[in-house]
Design brief:
Blueprint: H1 9-16, E1 22-26, E2 41-47, E3 53-59
Antiparallel strand pairs: 1-2, 2-3
Length: 75
């Protein structure tokens, strides 16, 4: 069984700006104005009203590792 990711310092800092929301682990580089395809989202952590990550990492069942072809990849 694969270990769930631990939030990096960058993710912890992002959580402070996202109270009562979620912070996501995304594979790949996307500009702030770009939509992130669901298959590039590894998973997420819930953030409480104080901007603190709570609970465990929730894996995205639609995530496709980059080494595998994604539906929107052109050949």
């Amino acid at each position: 069984m694969k270990e769930k990711p631990v939030p990096s310092q960058e993710v912890i800092e992002a959580a402070k700006d996202t109270p009562n929301g979620w912070v996501y682990q995304v594979e790949g580089n996307f500009a702030s104005h770009e939509a992130v395809p669901p298959e590039a989202i590894v998973g997420a952590w819930k953030v409480d009203e104080m901007g603190t990550i709570i609970g465990d990492f929730i894996s995205n069942p639609n995530y496709v590792p980059k080494e595998e072809p994604r539906p929107d990849d052109e050949e």
